[in-house]
Amino acid sequence: MKVVIYASMMKDTDFSVSHDVAAQLGEWGAEVWVDEQHAEHYRDLPVFTAPPADCCKDAQFVVSVGGDG
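Below the sequence we write its predicted structure tokens.
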């Protein structure tokens, strides 16, 4: 199952929440993808990186974290 973690590009985004979500999804066997611009926040996890448009191709789920709503 391909899951994309889409974290807001706002300056105040707390990546600890999206990191925890990505870690849990990986434990459950999901193929986790993240925007290559935010890859450093997930460097200790086995995630795939790509530009935003490519991340979402063929994804079963997109999890949005951060932003204003």
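Residues 2-65 form a domain with the Rossmann fold fold (CATH 3.40.50.720).
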